[in-house]
Write a structure and sequence with these properties.
Layout: E1 2-9, H1 14-26, E2 30-36, E3 50-56, H2 64-72, H3 74-79, E4 81-88, H4 103-111, E5 118-123, E6 125-127, H5 133-145, E7 155-157, H6 161-174
Parallel strand pairs: 1-2, 1-3, 3-4, 4-5
Antiparallel strand pairs: 6-7
Helix pairs in contact: 1-6
Length: 175
């Protein structure tokens, strides 16, 4: 059985939720473990057959720790069957919801030395009630600029779970 390590970098929890959904979809075919970018430092990633990395966007950027992890583990990532997906609110728009059309995926590929062959983009979630004051109003302003939801009492989950399922199936098919 193939062993898969799913590594996440999440700001508000939607990326973790997506990683767990992928894990639940592939666990019949793969031994799977889900860990945070911080926790992965304690593991030997060489022991896994497959690596999947999911990372969220906040204010237009993936966390610097993501790029640090990639740079420190580039040879392993290139040697293994691996995949990457980005979670961002701009992917809620159909014209920006794929690896080919999403500006944050383009930015990731331009900044990263790792060029995974399996790429995914998923729309995230806006939960104004969970945000600190500054984040709440900054995100609301960004949503206003991009014609997104601005009602501060709302929770808006944009994730297309069918797309997550398709991505998970692509991971299984590779095996």
């Amino acid at each position: 059985m193939i062993s898969t390590l799913i590594i996440y970098s999440s700001t508000d929890g939607q990326t973790i939720k997506i990683c767990k959904e992928i894990a639940s979809r592939i666990k019949e075919h793969n031994q799977v473990q889900v860990v945070s970018l911080d926790e992965v430092k304690q593991l030997d990633i060489n022991l896994y057959d497959q690596l999947v990395v999911g990372a969220s966007i906040r204010y237009g950027k993936h966390k610097p720790e993501l790029y640090r992890f990639i740079n420190e583990n580039l040879s392993i990532l290139e040697m293994k069957d691996s995949a990457f997906f980005s979670v961002n609110a701009v992917a809620r728009k159909s014209e920006k919801d794929s690896a080919d059309t999403n500006p944050y995926m383009h930015k990731f590929l331009a900044l990263s030395k790792w060029q995974p062959s399996n790429l995914g983009v998923f729309a995230g979630k806006i939960d104004y009630q969970k945000y600190k004051f500054i984040d709440k109003y900054m995100i609301r302003f960004i949503m206003w600029l991009t014609n997104g939801p601005t009602d501060l009492s709302g929770v808006y989950e944009f994730t297309d779970w069918k797309k997550v399922e398709i991505f998970a199936n692509q991971i299984i098919i590779k095996n």
